[in-house]
Each structure stands twice: as C-alpha cells, then as structure tokens.
From TrEMBL:
Any GO CC annotation of this UniProt entry: cytosol
Functional note: Catalyzes the ATP-dependent conversion of 5-aminoimidazole ribonucleotide (AIR) and HCO(3)(-) to N5-carboxyaminoimidazole ribonucleotide (N5-CAIR).
Pathway noted in the entry: Purine metabolism; IMP biosynthesis via de novo pathway; 5-amino-1-(5-phospho-D-ribosyl)imidazole-4-carboxylate from 5-amino-1-(5-phospho-D-ribosyl)imidazole (N5-CAIR route): step 1/2
Full protein name: N5-carboxyaminoimidazole ribonucleotide synthase
Molecular function GO terms recorded: 5-(carboxyamino)imidazole ribonucleotide synthase activity; ATP binding; metal ion binding; phosphoribosylaminoimidazole carboxylase activity
Length: 350
C-alpha cells in the first residue's frame, strides 16, 4: 500500500493519520519531538530536526505523497523533500499563507475584502500605517503567529511604542480593527482534478485568542452561506490547491472580510467528524491521494468545544451522552494547550 507522509506531529497530524489509516494507507510523520500526538498512531516516525538533510531525504523516499499539518515549515526542508516526492497542498499556497502580508496581497488581487493593512518594519512605518489605517488597529507578526500570539492591539496612538516592542524586531502587518457581528469559517477541499467540496460554514467563538467553540449551523442567511462557499472556492482555484483549507471570515454589514486562510485541516472544522458522513480529514487524504472527494454535506447540528489546559480534567462530566470525545494523548495539561475537543450533536440538520 501507499504511504502518506505528514510534516508535523500534533493533533492535526494525528487525526490525518487516523483518516489515512482508515483508507488503507500507511502513515509516516516527520517531527522533532519524540512523544507527540501523531507519534501514537502513525506507522513510522522520523524524529529529526528540519535542518537534518539526511533524515528529510530518507523520509521523502519512504513516502508516496507528502502533506503537512502546520504552515511554518522551513523552505529549505521543503526544497529537499519536493525534489524527491510530491507535496500537497502546493508550495505556492504554503508560501502565500505563511506570511500575512503576502496572504492579504493575494486575497486583494483576487478581489476579496480584507481588513485595511500595511506592512510595518520600523517605528516610522508604524506611524505611517496608523495615519493611513486609523485606530483601533492590531499589529501582527507577518509569520509564525497562532492562537493570537504575536499580536498587539493599539487602542490609542500611545500604544505604538509598546506594540513595536511586542514584535521584537519581527516584520509585522498593521490591520484595521473590524467591527464584525460574528466570525465564521469555511472548510473547503479541492481534489487533484479540480473538483471542490465545501463544508457548511461554522460559527466561531474565541476565548483569550484561542478558538473555544464552533457551532453549525452558523447564524447566516442562505445568501451569505452561498457567498462564503463561493469565495472559498475562488481561493482554492486561484491557488490551484489540492487538499483541505480553512478560511476565516468576519461577517460585516458590507459583506465578508477574509481574516486569514490556513493551508491545512483546521480546528474550526473538527465538527465535521460528527456532522458529516465524510469529515475534513478524510476529504484531505482523499484529495492528496488523487481520490474523488466524498459527500461533505451536513446531516447534524453540532457544537465543537476545544478542551484547553485543565478543561480536560472535567471529563467525563462535561460530555453528554450525545458527545463524541477526541483526546490528543498529550501528557501535560499546560495552560492554553489544546488537549482535545468534544463534538456534541444537538439535532438533525434542518
Ligand atoms: P489562529 O489560531 O486562528 O491561526 P492567529 O494567531 O493567526 O489565530 P488571527 O486569526 O489573526 O490570529 O486573530 C485571532 C482573533 O483575533 C480572530 O479570530 C479575531 O477574533 C480577532 N481579530 C484578528 N484580527 C482582527 C481584526 N483585524 N479586527 C478585529 N478582530 C480581529
Ligand atoms: Mg492564524
Ligand atoms: Mg485565526
């Protein structure tokens, strides 16, 4: 049987591995950490650093196709791997979404709305950006940010100095603050022959910068639902994308604003495990393996809740009889760490 390679060994890699196993594939992860969520379920684990050319070469040779569970993979490592084995989604999609500035440039180029934005490297850039965009605003590092890390909010021009300090010299982008009514996301998959299947948009609530719940159905009109799915398809096509992607959207009176895109399966798509016959992980594996996509239509209403830090200690009490529990096998329930999630089915889809 064919072997699917996954760069990264976190919970997304673990759930991709499980989906791939169910489809009869062997899985092989590349991850520097020894004890990681995906290492408990993958068939093979290349435990090495991304600078280890020899290990990367062996890993690539062991795999028939390679994917990733996080977007911050060093470019040099990808060059080595790609010379041996195909990577999906493609390098251009990865490069675009690794950097918030190029991501917003791309979205603007294909006609989508983003928050007003400007690149910032120096205090002077920031002054200019504030003049242009106004306050309130958010300064974000261009690269590597997740779960609200690497961000600084500017409520007044006086916050500029602190915001520059928070960036610690990293290139950043200033974004105008969007007064959205709700946040939603669309998880979409594009197959190798260009077919697209998008899951129903989910409504997201964050706590302390970390996703707390995703609820389906989202409070959207029929027209908004269609819009959200079509713009996601536009993004997938424009990037000639193969695999599953998460698109985060702000709902505003003037339409959707794209917050960010993630070139991978997405936390806000975990509800699909309980809400659809084919979930986001299986869709991704099907896409990168060159299979036809499955039916991603939603049969149930679901609330997905992340178990962060010691939330996990409240199990099984917080799980109702209609709650599916997913734990990632992480040993220590550190503050802010995603330990698992629960999917509660709240009814049949209307
Ligand atoms: P993730 O874990 O989703 O990758 P991240 O660290 O990349 O998060 P963002 O998604 O950019 O961070 O921002 C986190 C949250 O902060 C958003 O979901 C939204 O609630 C809020 N936020 C971000 N940018 C803006 C903005 N321009 N206007 C208003 N709220 C924003
Ligand atoms: Mg992000
Ligand atoms: Mg986000």
């Amino acid at each position: 049987g064919a072997t699917i390679g996954i760069l990264g060994g976190g919970q997304l890699g673990r759930m991709l591995s499980i989906a791939a196993s169910r489809l009869g594939f062997k899985t092989c992860i590349f991850e520097p950490a020894g004890d990681c969520p995906a290492s408990h379920v993958a068939n093979y684990h290349y435990k090495a650093d991304y600078s280890d050319t020899d290990a990367l070469t062996k890993f690539a040779n062991a795999c028939d196709v390679i994917t990733f569970e996080f977007e911050n993979i060093p470019t040099d490592a990808l060059d080595i791997i790609e010379a041996i084995t195909p990577i999906h989604p493609n390098r251009a999609a990865l490069a675009t979404s690794q950097d918030r500035f190029s991501e917003k440039n791309f979205l603007t180029r294909i006609g989508l709305q983003t928050a007003p934005y400007a690149a910032v490297e120096t205090g002077e850039d920031l002054e200019q950006a504030i003049d242009q965009i106004g306050i309130p605003a958010i300064l974000k590092t261009r690269r590597m940010g997740y779960d609200g890390k690497g961000q600084s909010r500017l409520m007044s021009p006086d916050d500029a100095v602190q915001a520059m300090t928070d960036m610690a010299g990293a290139p950043a982008v200033l974004e105008g603050f969007i007064n959205f009514s709700v946040e939603v996301s669309v998880i979409g998959t594009r197959s190798a022959n260009g077919a697209i299947s998008c899951f129903d948009p989910g409504e997201n609530v964050h706590r302390n910068g970390i996703l707390h719940t995703t609820t389906v159905p989202a409070k959207l009109t029929r027209a908004q639902r269609t819009d959200a799915v079509l713009l996601t398809a536009n993004i997938l096509n424009a990037l000639d994308y193969v695999g599953t992607m998460g698109v985060e959207l702000f709902v505003t009176p003037t339409g959707f604003i794209v917050n960010e895109i993630a070139p991978r399966v997405h936390n806000s798509g975990h509800w699909t495990q309980a809400g659809c016959a084919i979930d986001q992980f299986e869709q991704h594996i099907r896409a990168i393996a060159g299979w036809p996509l499955g039916d991603g239509s939603r049969h149930s209403n679901v609330i997905m809740e992340n178990l962060i830090g010691d939330d996990v200690n409240r199990l099984p009490d917080i799980a109702k009889t209609n709650t599916a529990i997913h734990l990632y096998g992480k040993a220590d329930a550190k503050l802010g760490r995603k330990m698992g999630h629960i999917n509660t089915v709240t009814g049949a889809s209307a």
